[in-house]
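User: We ran a pulldown and think these components assemble together. Before we commit to crystallization trials, I'd like a predicted model of the whole complex to look at. Sequences follow.
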Amino acid sequence: MADRHKEGSKSKYTLDRQMPGAFEGETVTRRRFMTGVTHGAGAVAAMAFTLPALGFAIGPLFSRLPWSWQPIGPPEDFTDTTYTTKVIQIVQGIGEAGNSIAYVRKRDPAIDTEPLDQYNHWVALSSRCMHLGCPVRFVAAAERFICPCHGGVYDFRGMVVGGPPVRPLDRFYTRYNTSTGLVELGPRYSVNSELQRFSPRDPGQPLDGIGQYLYPPRFDTASLTSR
Amino acid sequence: MNQAEKEAYLREYSILKNQGKPFFPYAVAKDSVMAVVVMIVIIFLAAMFGAELGPKADPTTTTYVPRPDWYFYFLFEVLRVMRNIPKFTDLATIGVPTICMILLFLLPFYDRSPERRIERRPVALAAGLTTIFAMAFLTYTGANTGSPNTVDLQPPASLTAQQKAIFRAGALVVGNSGCLACHVLGNNGNDGPGPPLTHIGRILRPEAIASTLRNPTAPMPSFAALAKQNPRQFYDLINFLGELQ
Amino acid sequence: MPKLPSPPLPKALRPAPRRPGEPDEKQATTPIEVAADAGISVVDWIDERTSLSGGIRWMMFRKVPRGINWFYTLGSATMFAFLNQAVTGVFLAMYYRPDAAGGAYESVRYLTDQAFLGQLVRAMHKWGASVMIILIFMHMARVFFFGAYKYPRELTWIIGVVLLILTMAMGFTGYLLPFDQRSYWATIVGVNINGTGPFLGPYLSDFLRAGPEFGATTLSRFYAIHMMLIPGLIAALIGAHLYLVSKLGISAPPWIKAQEEPELRQTTL
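Assistant: Here's a predicted model for the assembly, 741 residues in total across the polymer chains.
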């Protein structure tokens, strides 16, 4: 009897375990069933409001910003010796708060060694310092871009010459629109110290060596592949 | 703390608690007086200094110098101190505060000694005082540093008023031209790749400085364009550098 | 109904015992006595249904150890500064419009220049934030130097550190709301600092900005975090912090030693 009881307590059937009121073939006790229902239903109910709210909050990570080619002026506006400052719109619908600055000049084959394609006949630099995003200023006398926050300095091509920035100034795709006769500005892209193009990253994220793996590309950035 | 020490503490504490007084009204009275003091301080500060509203946010500015609120000055200063080492930017911005926060979180777990009197906890005393002084120092220096593009050198006393004005104008040109990116001037600027300029006037005569500015060795940019377009600024610049004895 | 033991009030606050010759139960005659009786019966009615008085007595009439001093008021002072922030914040929210296209700045300008007492309330909110940060650091320093975070109060310390981080996050999210130059650029830099964390940084800054650029919903996101998400968390955690303080008792100053009296030793054995 003692042996059978021991054997019975291991059995998966409640009847074998001498449970009072057990049914033939029953494996789950009522208490365990109710506990499971409590946990399961509670989890489903809590997830029913948590998951949509969470999805709503992180949704913008996956949506791309709409962008369009913005005319910035006729080709005569831009020389290859100095930069012209152009106000551009990067976010639509919030007025002045969605604007930004681009420094634009004509490509100078003597100094611009990156391969020429249809998108870089004009060099358009973003005004965001690649240290932490402060607004850089172009100083014509020194042919330098200077950041007021932590002293980052870039040369005429936007390459870092001093201070903490981790990569050259970001750039914009440019093209010439033959039907309007105007230079147009496209989406922003990031460059590493060899001026290779990357999808746009935030300031402070290096793109040389291991940097491009530490800071993966995001899902929400507009990109334009060179054709 | 082992089990015996825990029990000893609880026994000691229950005796102290029994000898104490009720929370209400003895402790609450002190708390209420403190609340009144807090409100007096807040209302005094509010009435004295008000709340200013700066110009409207403008993402297209090229002249604005961003500053954080005062309680982030210490972080701002850590960033400024570590700016010469681009590799460590991540360390300063994310690493240092994260490590400090983790250390703060885990404090009860790595400091497990039963001793509570601060004079018998030399490591804790040293760490606490170091933290307080470091935070106070970083906040203070963070509050007092100007833009990294200004040169805070005072003109030598031997100069005439006119020469002093030229000295200040030249310092402004140096700041605005980004010289500090590669040169050290006193306490300002990055040490390298360019040579330090703190005592450049001892080494080079003004004429030599002018010719170097016109025909520098790469990667330094030429200031010939400045000399042509704005000779006044170029003159101020040369005189300023020549006075750095 | 069983009578609860009377609270250990100091002598001056206890009701005077009945003098010989006075009637047993004084009938309320003056209007003040009638009002007091009505008040007592309302409190009795609530207490009969909630039994709150036991909890309040537990909280308010617990003993605090010998030797506590002014340093022990820093915690409650921090909570008081938080109450100031909550109340002034609610009144600021009545005027504020989280609209990046210009409405936010205009509403703060209106609030500061036109609204009755608006300048004062906004200044109280702004300076209250600074005072709260100073108080929270002083409170933390007191706990650190008194060794009050040690057994059995480790969890109280951890909740306190979370409260400190949340308070700093309040400072960061609130800084953007006036939408002037300072706010905008400080937020750009702050979000980019978060973005420099390896691997997760880019996604964290996207989450804060609600997109790859500072956009239309960034401001409302900061506003919702600043006035609903974090204050709710702070209030809940202050409750947990206070419960633990009441349950474990306020730590005694480390230099106070118990003088063990014979009868006390008897009771503790």
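The beta strands of chain B are 21-22. That may be worth checking against your pulldown data before setting up trials.

User: Thanks, that helps.
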